[in-house]
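Format notes (please read before filing issues)

Several people have asked whether sequences and structure tokens are stored in separate files. They are not. Every record keeps both together, in the order shown below: the sequence lines, then the token lines. Line labels are part of the format and must not be stripped during preprocessing.
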Amino acid sequence: MLGPSYNHTMESPGTFFLLGIPGFQSSYLWLAISLSTMYSIAVLGNMLIIIVICMDSTLQEPMYFFLCVLAAVDIVMASSVVPKMVSIFSSGDSSISFNACFTQMYFVHAATAVETGLLLAMAFDRYVAICKPLHYMRILTRHVMLGISVTITVRAVIFMTPLSWMLSHLPFCASNVVPHSYCEHMAVAKLACADPMPSSLYSLIFSSIIVGSDVAFISASYSLILKAVFGLSSRNAQWKALSTCGSHVGVMALYYLPGMASIYVAWLGQDRVPLHTQVLLADLYLIIPPTLNPIIYGIRTRQIRERIWSLLTHCFFSQCTQGS
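Then the structure lines:
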């Protein structure tokens, strides 16, 4: 399961070896099975949401547009790391080329930056829908939604491009064993022969700025939402509004709590928290939200639940009709 025997000499300057999860070698088969299952749920669930939203003309509101983009980002995030993880845990194939490692790093961190921006956009969508319902379609036009999506993507690219450039131009002349199951920034930076502090500080500062500002605006949005909801006279209207926002809050908690724990443990608690705990936190942070997001939205959003059930029923009966 461990693959090649690792040492601290550079066997191939163009190759890294991903160590997986230190100390969990005896559980690699179960990890491979679990990750494969979660990845299948993530890809199929998010693809189903994208298909349903794109095909159904009644699901063309801004909320569903952002949800569709979120599902696509979740697929990219999970696909960037999980297939290689499964390969490590199932067959011991832990080698990854220099270029593939930094490409993986770029997509992983860019996708996380896009996702936090999308969660902010979805919080803003709920704020407008509940606090300014009469102006909802006038404020969130197609051009505004497209502009928000492009801005979020450009922000992620602007953040990640200097970080990738700084780290990829460092000399790697010692160990080529990455003590992680994917090319996580801090894990790769520690292998550099030169001082990795500039890129590490850049990552910490800009991650904190992006996530901190997004969380602050999300918190402000939901504070205004709660104020408006509890000001409604109808209990039924209150419950409907809270239920609509419940799925968004659940998704945000799944994303931000393990994400922030992973970032600050890797930076501040690296000598206090066991390495396998750090790696597990980072791994679960990338796979749990993409897996649970479609389940949460599918269960809690009535329109999507009904459309998915209708689509699956139609496909089932079509297959039965063709078979007979």
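For reference, the curators noted about this record: Confidence is low (pLDDT under 50) at residues 1-13. The longest strand covers residues 15-18.
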